Amino acid sequence: MTDRCHECDDCHVDETTDWSRRSFLKGAAMVGIAAFGFAATDAAALPVAFGTGTAGSGSSERRYPIPDKDGVTIDRGGQVIVVRYQQHVYAFNLACPHENTALKWLPKDGRFQCPKHESRYQPTGTFIDGRATRHMDRLGVRLDNNMLVVDLNQFYRSDKDAAAWAAANVAL
């Protein structure tokens, strides 16, 4: 489903980042500068975690705990990215909409980037620049108790149904 980047053999995501307190604070300070249309208060570094959703009631559903704070969770097996950002939760397809390459999260920059052609996206999935021609593809989401349910069969492209794409999130 996804092309492998040539920076790693198997993971599609950079897990070699040093997650020490010092590197986190350094990254947060660098992102504190307003960039890509974010206000300085919105540009705090979002931490990344790797997780696995559990099967939901339907075969096309995956369930994830609602993150306690803003951040990014990548489920490589499910090909899903879950983002909590500014009191909203989103689920995205892991693949870049340009040529289906697995996207990377760049915590120090506070954005997603395609390693193949360097298309860049905000934490909301909104396209910034690069070769892609649309925003990241969103998946259908709903809350069930304290869990986020992602429907892998509800796939929203911003260029095909902008209203459904915009609505594909959960407000907290």
Write a concise synopsis of the structure shown.
This protein has helices spanning 21-31, 162-167, and strands at 48-50, 54-55, 61-65, 71-75, 80-85, 88-93, 104-106, 111-113, 120-121, 127-129, 138-144, 147-156, 170-171.
Structural overview:
With 172 residues, the chain is mainly β. It has a single domain, classed as Rieske Iron-sulfur Protein. Helix content is 10%, strand content 33%. It is built from 2 helices and 13 strands; from the N terminus they run H-E-E-E-E-E-E-E-E-E-E-E-E-H-E. It has helices at 21-31, 162-167; strands at 48-50, 54-55, 61-65, 71-75, 80-85, 88-93, 104-106, 111-113, 120-121, 127-129, 138-144, 147-156, 170-171. Strands 1-4-5-6-13 form a 5-stranded mixed beta sheet, with no helix packed on it. A 4-stranded antiparallel beta sheet has the order 2-3-12-11. A 4-stranded antiparallel beta sheet has the order 7-8-9-10, with no helix packed on it. The longest helix has 11 residues, at 21-31. Residues 1-41 have low confidence and may be disordered.
Going across the biggest sheet, name each strand in turn: 1-4-5-6-13
Q: What is the overall number of helices?
A: 2
Question: Would you list the SSEs in sequence order as H and E?
Answer: HEEEEEEEEEEEEHE
Structure summary, number of beta strands: 13
- Tell me the span between the first and last alpha carbons: 32 Å
Features:
single chain; mainly beta; Rieske Iron-sulfur Protein; 5-stranded mixed β-sheet; 4-stranded antiparallel β-sheet; 13 strands; disordered N terminus
